[in-house]
Amino acid sequence: MKIYETQGFPNPARIRIALAEKGLTDQAEFIQINVPEGEHQTEAFRAKNPFAAVPVLELEDGTCISECSAITEYLDHLDDTPSLTGSTPKARAQIHMMQRRAEAGLLDAVGSYFHHATPGLGADIEGYQCPQWGNHQKETALKSMRYLDTVLADQPWLAGDNFSVADITAFAGLVFAGFAKVDVPKECANLIAWHARMSARPSVEALG
User: Fold this and answer.
1) Which residues of the chain does CATH 3.40.30.10 include?
2) CATH number for the domain formed by residue range(s) 2-76
3) Is the pTM of this model over 0.90?
4) Contact at 8 Å (CB) between 7 and 201?
5) 16 neighbors 25 (Cβ within 8 angstroms)
6) CA–CA distances in Å: residue 172 to residues 15, 45, 148
7) Which of 166, 183, 194, 204 could make a disulfide contact with 158, Cβ separation 3.0–4.6 Å?
8) Digits of tens for pLDDT over the chain (208 positions)?
9) What is the Cα–Cα distance from 62 to 83, expressed in whole angstroms?
């Protein structure tokens, strides 16, 4: 299988972590797309993902799957161990609930701040920007950090006792936040400790 990505970007990092957790990294061929130079907007890449975003998973039969949640679902169901998306109806529901909260409230919110309220990837790539919206989303991200801190007060991982895709998404959100200079509130001790545990996982250390 092929993974089209821009190494170092938050969403491709999510897929690299998932691949490593599943022991599938060696089965993937990574193909770099130069987003800062606009390669994601080419006709050839849009044929793989009309929304012109990385990452994209291309299977041997030519099927292309985009969106991190969909790619992770595919990878997770190639085998059952370890499960990143849940092995029971209750676990799946809880994981996907927390994954979506981490994605919308943290990762996507930081992304909106970066792309709208900072220079982002430059005028040629960003196009339309709304600084007011971007700064509003920065506050959303900070609120989400405080919320996730409360979740982690009584459990080791975001969806309960087991590591899951929700943790991967939230970690990517915090990495992006650090890059965008959106600091985790100092009072979020649980979130800070969780971030340290995440950083020590081999799948994350392998990102370099």
Assistant:
1) 2-76
2) 3.40.30.10
3) yes
4) no
5) yes
6) 10, 24, 14
7) 166
8) 999 999 999 999 999 999 999 999 999 999 999 999 999 999 999 999 999 999 999 999 999 999 999 999 999 999 878 999 999 999 999 999 999 999 999 999 999 999 999 999 888 888 899 999 999 999 999 999 999 999 999 999 999 999 999 999 999 999 999 999 999 999 999 999 999 999 999 999 999 7
9) 26
